[in-house]
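Table S2 (continued). Query chain:
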Amino acid sequence: MELKGVYTALVTPFKNDIFDEHAFKRLIALQIEGGVDGLVPCGSTGEASTLDYEEHKRVIELAVECAKKTVPVIAGTGSNSTNEAIELTEMAKEVGADMCLLTTPYYNKPTQEGLYRHYRKIAEEVDIPLILYNIPGRTGINMTPETVKRLAEIPGIEGIKEASGSLVQVTEIYRLTKGKFTILSGDDNLFLPMLSVGAVGIISVLSNILPAKMKALYKTFLEDRDIQKSRDINADLMPLFQGIFIETNPIPVKEALFYMGIIEEEFRLPLCTMSEANKIVLRDLLKKYGLLNKE
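Corresponding output:
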C-alpha cells in the first residue's frame, strides 16, 4: 500500500471503564466520511498503555471490521519489551491489520544500537509492514537520523512517524535516506512545515474531530501545490492545533469529542478529565469552530 496522506490516531472511547464499541464505530464512520487515508488504533492517543491484551486485540479487530478494506488500518503494537512488541504485532497481523506502528521502547532508554536491534528483531519475526515511531517527549529516547537510515535498509520497515518536534531531524532523515523512506508527521502543528521538508503525510490527533480539514491541508499543499491556500488552512487550524494539546494528549481531544456528542467523557487512570479552567477554553474554541454540540 502507498503510505501517504492523513491517518487518524484514534482515541479509545470508554463507558463504565469498558471499551465503548458503539462510540468507536461512530468515530470511525466520521473518519471515513471525512476522507482520511487510514486509521491508527492503539497508539498513545488511543491510551494503549492502559489496555490489556484482549482489549488491545478487540480495538484493532473492530477498527479492521469497520474499515471494511476501504482504508488501511495501522495498528499500534509498540512496547518497551521486544518480545511483547513481537507478540502484539503478530496479534495485529492475525486480526487483519495492514501495517503496525511501533514506538521506541520507553523507560528502558536503550542505546541507538539497542533501538536498531529491537526493530530489526520485530521485522525478522513478523511478516507485516512496520512504521517506526519516534516521540522522545513520551519515551525519553530520541532515535537519531543515522539509526533511522540503518533501519530503512531492513525489508519490511516502510516508514517513520516523526514526533521529535525538530524540522532539522526530519530533513536529516530525508537527506540520509535520499527521500526514499516514508516520513509521516507526528505533530499536528508541524504538519505543513514537515510536508515542506520531506514528509508525505501525518498520523494526526486533530483529525479525530476535523478529518476533512486535515485532508484538505494535505491535498492543497502536496497534490494541488496551492501554497497560499495551504498556508491559510494551516493558519485557520492553528488555534485548534494548540488547543487539543492544552493538557496531555489524548485528554483534550477526548473532551472535544465528548462536547461534539461522539463519545463519553471518560478516561482510564492515570489520565483524568481536564481542569475546569481548561474546559472553558476548549469549549469556547469548539464553539468558535462550530463544533460544540453540548455545553
